[in-house]
Amino acid sequence: MKKNIIIALISLVALSCTNDLEELNVNKKDFAITTDASLFTSAQYKLFNQMTETSVNENIFRLVVQHWTETTYTDEANYDFKTRNIDEFHWETLYRDVLKNFKEAKSLVSGLPDVQTNKTATIELYEIYTYYVLVTSFGDIPYTEALDIDVLNPTFNTQEEVFNDLLDRLDNNVISKFVTGEVGFSASEDIVYNGDIEQWIKFANSLKLQMGMLLADSDPAKAQTVVNSAIEGGVFTSASDNMKIAFESAAPYTNPVYAALVLSGRDDYVPTNTIVDMMGSLNDPRRDDYFTLLNGEYVGGLPGELNSFARYSHVSDKIGKDPTLEAPLMTYYDVEFLLAEAVERGFTAGDAAEHYNNAITASIIYWGGTNVEADSYLGQASVAYATAEGDFKEKIGTQKWLALYNRGYESWTEWRRLDYPVLVAPEDAKTTNNLPPFRITYPDVELTLNEVNLKAAISNIGGDELETKLFWDKN
User: Fold this and answer.
1) Neighbours of 334 (CB within 10 A)
2) Up-side HSE of residue 309: CA atoms within 13 Å toward CB?
3) N or C: which end of the chain has fewer CB within 10 A?
4) Angle at which helices 100-107 and 36-52 pack, to 10 degrees?
5) What percent of the chain has pLDDT over 90?
């Protein structure tokens, strides 16, 4: 039998020989054709994965905003972006794995004219969102010369230039371009809205609303114009509009939180006493959706300190042990909080309390609660809009920070913008102002690869420091 197998193998080798030497230079494992759909789907996944990630090597925003803290290590909970090159990973993932793939997908767009238009507008919308994350992370960034293979040392556009151009692109290249009643990417290729163009239009307007509100302190007149245009265009009106994806049940496509909390076999994170104690004082019905009990109580760890995993509550099974848990980039309750604030600032007509109530109710129901629980929670003097402590920034900022649990980046951006709740930096924090960071420092590799342009950007924003505020962060 062994002899027969050897003879068969020799025969197979002989048959596989070829006189066509050119064929030997072809890598038959490569894809013969790369399509717009394959690049588009890959870029979508990479974006959601990075924004949802919680590995201390890749994304530490849950730690920055003090929703979670660490057990084994403490550097990242003290805002250390450098030791593990987290700033570089965030930068490179968004430029190389997300924006580059979207750019290539756009160059390959195919189909009938209206199909091509919808595909291009959808890709453009994703590009705008990704650049929005980059500019609100770092400040000045490569933009007009970014991703150009012929430009090895791209200049950095000012953050104001980038932000204003993104708003123009939203209007001129996305919202006005979508063709309703026609398809774009198919249901299998579009992992968010399954090719529903009406939903993409709602997301575009909701992102526009969010970007408009980001300007509320730095340029209120422009903010009002942008906000009203977004509302008129049609923003999210229910949870069915949420911009989200569901992950797969098997690695490597599970929710990255599951990968970090279960597949890693490690016990690196516990919720902080900052959020646990606040939710306890407010009798928040989402506590059992966010945390586990320890001896019948919810107990949070100390931000930035060594915390014994066994001595504190853990991330809930709903969040940590479901590999398919969906990951949202924007939700209906985000939009309702923004509308409440827009009313308070006089940007639009309406009832701020009604939007505030809608937002909190939607968050509670999103996590598995009921309208009865939401009504009871909102009925407390400490939560009710009319009687909760502070001005509108404190009321909305505090409740939004609670609702954005497990969404580190969005929570961090809203905390920077609204300044609530009051967060105190750990004793060993890398910041020097007793607060969490206002931005991410530039990756060190840029100093090697693009020194002149990087130094110009650093000078323009006022220093490459965690404490440097971005142009929209005025108060």
Assistant:
1) 27
2) 10
3) N
4) 160
5) 93
Q: How distant, in Å, are the alpha carbons of 69, 171, 226, 396, 421 from that of 400? A: 19, 27, 22, 6, 9
| E strand residue ranges, 180-335 | 243-245, 269-271, 327-330
| Residues 415-446 pLDDT 10s | 999 999 999 999 999 999 999 999 999 999 99
The full DSSP string for 349-392 is: -S-HHHHHHHHHHHHHHHTT--HHHHHHHHTSTTTSTTTSSSSH
Does domain 36-251+325-461 correspond to CATH entry 2.10.109.10? no
Q: DSSP secondary structure string, 327-352?
A: EEEE-HHHHHHHHHHHHHTTSS-S-H
Closest CA to 329 of 34, 56, 98: 98
> Rounded mean pLDDT of the chain?
93
What's 51's DSSP letter? H
Strands 156-157 and 243-245: unpaired
CA distance 75 to 134: 23
Are the CB atoms for 362 and 336 separated by under 8 Å? yes
Q: Does a cis peptide bond (omega within 30 degrees of 0) precede residue 437? A: no
- State how far the Cα of 203 lies from the Cα of 68, in Å rounded to an integer: 29
Cα dihedral across residues 297, 383, 421, 461: positive or negative: positive
pLDDT, mean of residues 41-70? 97
Identity (one letter) of the amino acid at 233? G
Dist. CA 422–CA 425, nearest whole Å: 10
Give the burial class of 365: count Cβ atoms within 10 A of its Cβ; 0-12 exposed, 13-18 middle, 19 or more buried: middle
**Joined tokens for residue 421:** 């709740």
Q: What is this structure's pTM?
A: 0.93
Helices 392-403 and 273-281 meet at what angle, rounded to 10? Answer: 110
Backbone dihedral angles phi then psi of residue 291, each to the nearest 5 degrees: -130, 165
Q: How many CB atoms lie within 10 A of CB 101?
A: 22
Q: Is the peptide bond before 271 cis (omega within 30 degrees of 0)?
A: no
* Residues β-bridged to residue 69: 270
- Give residue limits of the domains in the chain: 36-251+325-461
pLDDT at 144: 98
CA distance 139 to 134: 8
Task: Give the containing element (helix H, strand E) for 156.
Answer: strand 156-157
Q: How far apart are the first and last CA of the chain?
A: 81
- The predicted-structure confidence for 210-241, as pLDDT tens digits, reads as follows 999 999 999 999 999 999 999 999 999 999 99
Residue 32 confidence class, pLDDT cut points 50, 70, 90:
low
